[in-house]
Structures are given as C-alpha cells and as structure tokens.
Amino acid sequence: MTGDGDWQVKVQPLEQAPLVGPGGVGDEVYLYGGGDAQVSFFHRGLAEYMIVQWKGTAPAGSRLVLGGSGPISTAGYSLSAGPSVLYVTATGLWALTPR
After folding, report:
1. Would you state the torsion angle of the CA atoms of residues 75, 81, 83, 88, taken in this order, to the nearest 10 degrees?
2. pLDDT tens for residues 20-63?
3. Within 10 A of 32 (CB to CB), how many other CB atoms are there?
4. Per the count of CB atoms within 10 A, which of 14, 43, 68, 69 is most buried?
C-alpha cells in the first residue's frame, strides 16, 4: 500500500462494523440488516465514488449498487434485503439513506 502522508490500517471483526448510518467522509464499511430498500445518495467529492453490497461469497455475492465520479445527488438505487455488508468508497463528504 502507498499513500501521501501518515496513514494506518485497522483490522477488526466484521461484526464490529457499524450499522449503515447517515454518511461520512472517505471509505467506510457498514452492516445492513434491513429489507429491500431504495437508496438516496449524495456525494460532494470530485473523484470516484462506489457503493458495493456483499451478501456472500464473491463474486456472485457482491453487487455494484452505484458508481461514478464527481458530485451527485440521486435516489432510486436499490439495496437487497440483508444481512449484508455495504462498502462505500468516496473522496469527499457523502450521505447514504435507505428509504
């Protein structure tokens, strides 16, 4: 791994990941235990963003929910019923809201 400036890697048991919340800055991993849901997503960063839902063994267990680059405010993307893991990667401030 490489990076500019100081950085660290923190490895924790998956069950310690937080439940999907209102948003954050940068990359995050969440647990999702809800039912089928529509998602609203806001991203203020200028580079790429991506939301992946993982429900089992890759590659069949993972699904790209949304991906692109630049600022966006959108709705209408679907999450499958949990339990699952959501991986959000983003370059700036973002918000993810299951409806």
Report:
1. -20
2. 877 788 888 889 888 999 989 999 988 899 999 998 766 678 88
3. 22
4. 43
